[in-house]
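Thread amino acids onto this structure.
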């Protein structure tokens, strides 16, 4: 498939954002802060600003896997893509579960409990995405006939319905509006997956619209600041504002057709960086019990830690890429 350079940019942005997110989220796992404390609010702001990373990853997957130029069937999905994720879970996810048991020392049979956690998807913070990705992969052959043949009108109606079921209704429920659970869709990321296809292959945006898109993006960022400052609830990665940020970034990069040389260089290592970066965050926070605030004010301490973690993750990924069996089957 021909290289789509702005996809490299989006993948790099999403990877940097998710590492920054976990740099802060790891602190929340190891230390309790008073809710109104400035440190808590700063960490929370960093985390909320970076939550777009996961929807952006899903948008990219939808754009690539639902491509009308890509032939997908269950045999290919299983033998190539699902196999790759399962191997990643075995090589990286299972050791992470074992290490977590050693960190916590909470069970008499840590290896057995680690295996249970691995099977049930209770690994380190980044691994849940791989379990979800397997589900998206298996839905792809079911979704593609619809996305390839649906009219733009039918596709937009489908996206509106999925948005209401998987994002809007859970948000209203989080705000205290009683909604019966049977109205909520069980696989919410399908909405973002199809949305990625729509943006990539159906949506047409002119470059003259870029200023308006940036204005909407700034409004979303302002609302995130407002929400954190006023402790307004959100529904994680399916939050409408979070989805909007990821969507706007995708549309802007596509419309500009951005070709970022640094992203083109880093893009092949993004998946491996995603896999290994929590090794460093957990080693620092749970192994060495280092706290950012012991060394730096949180306002710039987290960016410093993030820089160290992303560089370390890249170096490890670079050398992992030199191992043929890893490069061929996982990375």
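Threaded sequence (331 positions):
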């Amino acid at each position: 498939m021909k290289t789509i350079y702005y996809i490299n940019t989006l993948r790099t942005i999403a990877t940097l954002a998710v590492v920054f997110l976990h740099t802060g989220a790891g602190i929340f796992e190891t230390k309790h802060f008073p809710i109104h404390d400035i440190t808590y609010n700063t960490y929370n702001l960093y985390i909320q600003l970076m939550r777009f990373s996961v929807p952006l990853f899903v948008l990219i997957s939808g754009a690539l896997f639902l491509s009308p130029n890509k032939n997908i069937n269950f045999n290919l999905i299983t033998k190539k893509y699902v196999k790759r994720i399962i191997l990643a879970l075995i090589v990286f996810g299972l050791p992470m579960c074992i290490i977590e048991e050693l960190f916590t020392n909470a069970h008499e049979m840590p290896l057995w409990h680690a295996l249970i956690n691995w099977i049930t998807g209770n690994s380190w913070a980044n691994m849940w995405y791989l379990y979800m990705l397997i589900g998206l992969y298996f839905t792809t052959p079911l979704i593609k006939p619809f996305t390839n043949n649906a009219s733009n009108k039918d596709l937009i109606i489908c996206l509106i319905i999925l948005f209401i079921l998987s994002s809007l209704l859970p948000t209203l429920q989080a705000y205290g509006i009683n909604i019966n659970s049977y109205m909520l869709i069980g696989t919410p990321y399908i909405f973002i997956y199809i949305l990625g296809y729509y943006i990539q292959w159906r949506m047409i945006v002119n470059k003259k619209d870029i200023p308006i898109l940036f204005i909407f993006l700034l409004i979303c960022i302002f609302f995130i600041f407002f929400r954190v400052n006023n402790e307004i609830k959100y529904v994680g990665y399916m939050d409408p504002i979070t989805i909007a940020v990821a969507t706007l970034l995708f549309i802007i990069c596509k419309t500009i057709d951005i070709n970022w040389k640094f992203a083109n260089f880093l893009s092949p290592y993004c998946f491996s960086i995603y896999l290994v970066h929590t090794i460093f965050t957990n080693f620092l926070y749970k192994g060495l019990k280092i706290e950012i605030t012991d060394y730096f004010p949180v306002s710039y301490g987290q960016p410093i830690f993030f820089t160290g973690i992303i560089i370390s993750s890249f170096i490890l990924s670079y050398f992992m890429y030199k191992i043929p069996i890893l490069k061929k089957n996982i990375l």
